[in-house]
From TrEMBL:
It comes from Salarias fasciatus (Jewelled blenny). Belongs to the quiescin-sulfhydryl oxidase (QSOX) family. The lineage of its organism: Eukaryota, Metazoa, Chordata, Craniata, Vertebrata. Keywords: Disulfide bond, FAD, Flavoprotein, Glycoprotein, Membrane, Oxidoreductase, Signal, Transmembrane, Transmembrane helix. This is Sulfhydryl oxidase. One of its GO terms (cellular component) is extracellular space.
Length: 265
C-alpha cells in the first residue's frame, strides 16, 4: 500500500473508491477463507448483500452486481453454497450487463502512510456510516426484505457481519458487547446513525495512541470543532456535542451528494 503513489484527496469528501475497494476485499479476500457458506453464516451473508443492494447509493454497476448476487442467493434452494459460486458471480462470469465490481484495492480517504494501517477497516466504517445515512434518507428501501421490522436493521446486519466474518476478532468482541448493551436504545433511523457515530468515537478514544494509529490520521473525537463548529458546544464550562449539529453534519458528510467518483473504477 505505502509503495503506491499517494492519491491526493479532500478530507471533506467520501470516496466511492474506498467503498468499492472495501467491498472487493470483503467479497474476494475476507469471505474466501470460508470454503462453503451454510446455516447462520449463509443467512448473515444474504442479509449483508440485501442491505448493500438496497441502500448503496448511486444505482451504478456495484448496485447492479449486489442486486444480482442478492436475487441469486434468495432464489437458491440450496442450504449450502460453495464460496467459489459466490466468487463466480462477483466476477460476473454470467456477463450480466452493467454489473461490475473492480478487483483491486485503491484506497483514497482510507490510504495510509505505512503498509498495514487503515485500508479495509476504515472502509468498513465508511460503508456502514453511508448505509445508516441512506436508510435515514430512504427508510422504505428495506420494505419486503425481511429486515424492515427491525428498529436498527443496518446496525444489526453490521453486528452480525462483524461477529461472523470480520478478520479482527478483538474488534468483533468489542463491537458485539457494545451492540448487546446499546442497540436496545435505538428506535429509528436517526438514532441508528447517531449510535454508529458515537460507537465509532468510543473506539477512536480507546485506540488513540495505539499501534494501529496512523500518525497522519490521529484517532480523536470526530468531527473536530474546526471541521464542524456547530457540532460542539460548551455547557457550564463542559464540552458537549450538539445533537442537531452532529445529525446535520453526518447526513451531509455521508450523504449521496458528498460521494466522490474520483479514482473509482
Ligand atoms: P477509522 O476509525 O477506520 O475511521 C475511518 C474514517 O471515518 C476516518 O478517517 C474519519 O474520516 C471517519 N470517522 C472517524 N470517526 C468517526 C465517527 N465517530 N463517526 C463517523 N465517521 C468517523 N481496531 C482495534 O485495534 N481494536 C478494536 O477493538 C477495533 N474495533 C473495530 C470495530 C469495528 C466495527 C471496525 C469496523 C473496526 C474496528 N477496529 C478496531 C479498527 C479501527 O477502528 C480502525 O478502523 C483502524 O484502526 C483504521 O483507523 P483509521 O485511522 O483508518 O480510522
Amino acid at each position: 500500500q505505502s509503495s503506491e503513489p499517494w492519491r491526493e484527496f479532500d478530507r471533506s469528501l467520501v470516496y466511492l473508491a474506498d467503498l468499492e475497494s472495501g467491498l472487493h476485499y470483503l467479497l474476494r479476500v475476507e469471505l474466501a477463507s470460508h470454503s462453503t457458506l451454510e446455516g447462520a453464516e449463509l443467512q448473515v451473508f444474504k442479509d449483508f448483500v440485501t442491505l448493500v443492494a438496497k441502500l448503496y447509493p448511486g444505482g451504478g454497476s456495484v448496485v447492479k452486481l449486489m442486486e444480482t448476487l442478492s436475487d441469486w442467493l434468495l432464489t437458491l434452494p440450496l442450504p449450502k453454497i460453495p464460496y467459489q459460486a459466490v466468487l463466480d458471480l462477483v466476477d460476473n462470469k454470467m456477463r450480466i450487463s452493467g454489473a461490475y465490481l473492480g478487483a483491486e484495492l485503491r484506497w483514497v480517504g482510507c490510504q495510509s502512510s505505512r503498509a498495514g494501517l487503515r485500508g479495509y477497516p476504515c472502509s468498513l466504517w465508511t460503508l456502514f456510516h453511508v448505509l445508516t445515512v441512506q436508510h435515514d434518507a430512504r427508510p422504505d428501501a428495506l420494505d419486503n426484505t425481511g429486515l424492515e421490522a427491525d428498529s436498527a436493521p443496518v446496525l444489526q446486519v453490521m453486528r452480525r457481519y462483524i461477529r461472523t466474518f470480520f478478520g479482527c476478532q478483538e474488534c468483533g468482541r468489542h463491537f458485539e458487547a457494545a451492540a448487546a448493551s446499546g442497540l436496545k436504545s435505538v428506535h429509528n433511523p436517526e438514532e441508528q446513525l447517531l449510535w454508529l457515530w458515537q460507537q465509532h468515537n468510543a473506539v477512536n478514544t480507546r485506540l488513540a495512541g495505539s499501534l494501529s494509529e496512523d500518525p497522519l490520521f490521529p484517532k480523536a473525537p470526530w468531527p473536530s470543532a474546526s471541521v464542524c463548529p456547530s457540532c460542539h458546544e460548551e455547557r457550564n464550562g463542559v464540552h458537549v456535542w450538539n445533537r442537531d449539529g452532529v445529525l446535520l453534519f453526518l447526513r451531509r458528510h455521508y450523504g449521496a451528494a458528498n460521494l466522490s467518483p474520483r479514482y473509482a473504477a
